[in-house]
Structures are given as C-alpha cells and as structure tokens.
Amino acid sequence: MDTQPTVQIVVAHYNEDLSWLEPVKDSCIVYSKGGAKNAPTDYPYISLPNIGREGHTYLHHIVKRYHQLADVTIFLQGRIDDHVNLSPAEIKERALSTRPGEVVTFPFRELELFDLWDGIPWEKYPCWEKWANMDCKKMPKSPAQYFRQYFGNGKVPESIGFQPGAIFAVHKETIQQHSRLFYRSLLQELFLGDMAHVNPETGHYMERFWLAMWNPSEYVCWNSEDDLAMTKRNSLNQLAKGHWHRTPRGVKVDASTIYMSKQS
C-alpha cells in the first residue's frame, strides 16, 4: 500500500492573521519577522530578523532543514488571498501529487514572464507602484549577473517564467538537486551582509528566479524562436515555456493575470 508523502508548509510571516491556516496547522512551520508584538499567538513559531522578504525565509529554511526536508514543501506567505483562491486544505491536497522536477503553483495568478535583465525600471510599471515607493536597498549587480553566476552556467536566457508572490510546492529531490552550500551562498549574497535589509531589491528578483532555478527545462526560455513550447499550457496547466504573461508598462492594474484552471 502506497503511503502519502510528508508535507510541510513553510510560512513567511510578519504580522498577518494566520487563523486561515487552522485546518493545516499541524503541517505548518512559521517563521515570524514581526517581533514579539506581532508574533502569532496560537502558533509555535521561529523568530527571524525582519530582512530579505520571503526569499530570505525560504532560503533560511532550506539551509537549516536541508537534510530533514519533508517529501514536499509548500512555500507561502502569511497572506495569500491576493494571489491564490484556494483554501489551505486544497493547497495541501494539490501539493501531495508534486513529483520530483515539478514546481506546483496555484491559481488564480498566471505565471509571468521576466526578461528585464538590466533591472526593472520600477517607475515605468505603475502596477508595481507599491514596491517602487518603498525604501529599497539597491542591488550591487544586475539580474543578469546574478542569473549568470548562480543559475545559467555563465549564460543569460531570453526570458524566464515565475510565480507572482512566490507561492508553490516543491519535492525534496527537486530542492536537493542543488547542494546545501549552493543555497547558503545564495542566502549570503542576496540577503545577508550588505544586503541585510527589510526590502532588498534582491528579494524581488529571487521571486523571479525560483522556478528557473528548480526546473530550467520548463521555466527558462533561451530563444523564443527555437525554445518556445508547442502548446500554450504545460502538463501542470501553467502557461508553458515562453507563453508566460508579460506585465504591461504604464498601467495601474494588470487585469490579465487570471489563471483559468481546467480543474475549477
């Protein structure tokens, strides 16, 4: 008889109400960055310094638990209803089927395209105004330099696909295709030292790198003429390679990001 995979839910928390996670509470490990006054009252939690956004939290978990990872890890933030329209029980149920090599994402947000390798001109994207107006620690390198160094074997692709909000499920084998030293180096360069800041620009780019890091064959498009997927959607019903949604410039609300699941 087949046994179900173990599942752990990594929650990047600041001050959000976590009562919505009650149905899956026993599967959660909460990393809280809001200090004692914002700590969750009904959940055990691990305190972290308020740096690095969710990227720092996720990498911290991977480095610390590398040899004790659950079969499947769900990474999410303390609030997800602006990105996902599933209950936590539905998210966990879908995550149970995650296979090695897959990165399972959840509706309603489509995968988006990133190709701004010299850096995002935040002022040209009013729909990202919230982030543009925040105090931000600028990166010492371009996204292209980071990608070339860590993910591209010295090369930079035409585009990559990413999940807005960095909410996804990943199998242990997929995470462990890279060494613990690799993740520790990534954590150090992107979120510690000079980049230890509440809103480092590296956090916004790591959000865009996760899928490409774990499954480049699916989420890295080297050339749209030769490397474009033949179908619009892949086996996970995500937008397929090279068909990802491109955020338009000059609009305050990007309304073209709704994920039309075949299962809904």
How would you summarize this macromolecular structure in one to three sentences?
The chain has 264 residues and is α/β, with parallel strands linked by helices.
Helix/strand class: alpha/beta
The biggest sheet amounts to: 6 strands, mixed
Assign a percent range to the helix content.
25-40%
The counted number of beta strands is 9
N-to-C CA distance: 30 Å
Helix-strand sequence = EEEHEHEEHHEEHHHHE
Which strand-content bin applies to the residues? 5-15%
Q: Provide a count of the helices.
A: 8
Mean pLDDT across the residues is 93
Taking pLDDT < 50 over at least 5 consecutive residues as the criterion, the unreliable ranges are: none
**Shape category:** globular
Radius of gyration: 18 Å
- The side-by-side strand order for the widest beta sheet comes to 3-2-1-4-8-5
What key phrases describe this protein's structure?
264 residues; alpha/beta; 6-stranded mixed β-sheet; 3-stranded antiparallel β-sheet; 8 helices; 25% helix; globular
Question: How does this model look, in words?
Answer:
This protein has 264 residues and is of the alpha/beta class. Helix content is 25%, strand content 14%. It has helices spanning 53-64, 88-95, 129-132, 143-150, 172-175, 180-191, 201-214, 216-219; strands at 7-13, 28-32, 45-47, 72-77, 103-105, 112-114, 159-162, 168-171, 220-221. The strands form two sheets. A six-stranded mixed sheet has the order 3-2-1-4-8-5, sandwiched between helices. A three-stranded antiparallel sheet has the order 6-7-9. The longest helix has 14 residues, at 201-214. The chain is globular, with a radius of gyration of 18 Å.
